[in-house]
Design a protein that fits this description.
The chain is of the alpha/beta class. 40% of the residues lie in helices and 19% in strands. The protein is globular and about 55 Å long.
Length: 351
């Protein structure tokens, strides 16, 4: 049995699963919103629920959003790995720090339990150079300034659930991204160096002209203000002036709220545009799968997109529930099948 912790920017998910390399069965799950200090929430909300599972747990797997250039596969966590992950946390400031905080909390609580990190960037290591490279000076690119891509755990889950030649995987939730998948491998995606690029999201801006950001800096806006504005006060929230919740905006837009209508309009325009871009990268589309809190649950969105994207030709559309936890469990099982889930070595292992 495997414990999976998925600590997001606004949510805390935990699950216990039985897993092999090809399948996973969920035995228990719990989810809550992030509130207050994460350590307190883990100790007071999560720990009591795990008491009955500790004797049977063989390892723990964690979702870590950004693995930087070096972490491209499930990785056994030790002191050196934690230090290196700390160094790339600035690239995903809403996600990596809380994930690492949960890892350290579990190390203190269960120091002998093997822990593994699974990375959202790993699935996109198959991006070809033309898709992963920014048109920047060589000296900048040598500092790791490239496109990494994110939501890879769920994009990989979708790719394995919908095996086909040309697939567009659409992860639409608080964070949003598309992946162009050819024969199970990511060849293009909408997110880049950080999870800010690409589609409009709940409170993240998606792509903006970098010249606009330079303009704001020259007007005196601080780096911290830019960071907070782009990550926490933009997207659906910034457009609507009302809410970052898709369901609230659907309801408000139907009642005539102009901000909600603008938010939905900008979101859908960007989504249609990027779907077309992914189709161009693939050279055609067999299937488009909508996932995430918005994509898997809004049937109206599916019908709207089918109508708007009919020019793509005969494409099979479907909605698939996200399963990052199951994918993490399967990846950890694949990482060291000879010694069982998590292995029995205390050494750091970057595979």
């Amino acid at each position: 049995m495997l414990l999976v912790l998925n600590v997001g920017s606004s949510s805390l998910k935990a699950a216990v699963l039985q897993a092999t390399a090809t399948s996973s069965t969920e035995l228990w799950r719990s989810e809550t919103e992030r509130q207050g200090a994460l350590q307190d929430q883990l100790s007071h909300w999560l720990a009591p629920q795990l008491e009955r599972w500790w004797p049977e747990l063989k390892a723990a797997g964690h979702r870590v959003v950004h693995g930087g250039e070096h972490f491209t596969a499930p990785t056994r966590i030790g002191a050196t790995v934690l230090e290196e992950l700390d160094a790339v946390s600035a690239l995903a400031p809403l996600h990596n720090p809380p994930a690492l905080e949960a890892i350290r909390w579990l190390q203190q609580l269960r120091p002998t339990l093997p822990q593994w990190a699974c990375f959202d960037t790993a699935f996109h290591t198959s991006l070809p150079p033309e898709a992963s490279t920014y048109a920047l000076p060589a000296s900048w690119r040598q500092r790791g300034c490239r496109r990494y891509g994110f939501h890879g755990l769920n994009h990989q889950h979708i790719a394995e659930a919908v095996p086909c030649h040309q697939l567009i995987s659409a992860h639409l939730g608080a964070g949003c991204s598309l992946a162009a998948v050819r024969d199970g491998r990511s060849i293009d995606t909408t997110m880049g160096f950080t999870p800010l690029e690409g589609l409009v999201m709940a409170s993240r801006s998606g792509s903006v002209d970098p010249g606009l950001l330079l303009h704001l800096q020259r007007q005196g806006l601080s780096l911290d203000a830019l960071d907070q504005g782009l990550n926490r006060h933009s997207g659906l929230l910034g457009l609507s002036g009302l809410s970052s919740d898709w369901r609230d905006l659907r309801s408000a837009a139907a009642e005539g709220h102009s901000g909600a209508q603008l938010a939905l309009g900008v979101f859908l325009h960007r989504l249609r545009r990027e779907l077309g871009a992914m189709a161009a990268s693939l050279g055609g589309v067999d299937q488009i799968a909508l996932s995430g809190g918005i994509g898997a649950n809004d049937s109206s969105l599916l019908e709207e997109l089918k109508a708007a994207m009919a020019w793509l030709g005969p494409v099979q559309w479907q909605r698939i529930a996200a399963d990052e936890e199951g994918m993490i469990a399967r990846l950890v099982s694949r990482a060291d099948p000879a010694s069982g889930v998590g292995g029995d070595s205390a050494a750091d292992d970057r595979h």
